[in-house]
Design brief:
By secondary structure, the chain is an alpha+beta fold. It has 2 domains: 39 residues; 90 residues, no CATH class. Helix content is 38%, strand content 30%. A 4-stranded antiparallel sheet has the order 2-1-3-4. A hairpin with a 4-residue loop joins β1 and β2. 11% of the residues are buried. The mean pLDDT is 89.
Amino acid sequence: MSTRGRVLRVAAVVVFGALTLAGTFRGDDTLFPFAPFRMFSTADKPNEPVLALHTDGIDTTGRRIELDERNAGVRRAEIEAQIERFKADPSLLHSVRESYAARNPGKPPLVEVDIVEVRHHLRHARPTGDVTEVVLARYRP
């Protein structure tokens, strides 16, 4: 290997190392790979609930259906990423309702779409068995 090649490789290692070190102390998930993924390096508080979201629909027969990628074309991560928008304007859930109708012809249409936060309660970092559901956004056409 030439001297120039060695100098470039050493320089790259030094720059990468400096960015990683700086990211470790000052960075967050947005700076990955130069900062740790904090979502995987932290734990929930031992007496605070663990939160999970899901999207539900209620059809004209009154049946509640969990909406997902297969039946409505929406992934939970997409809903979570835009939860503040849906809370501010639940009418945005109209697109989820339309997507469900397009993917499920012949099934009863949805009369309601809800984003529900499920809270699994903990005590000393162990599940208590208590579960609370809170509707964060509700769309009724």
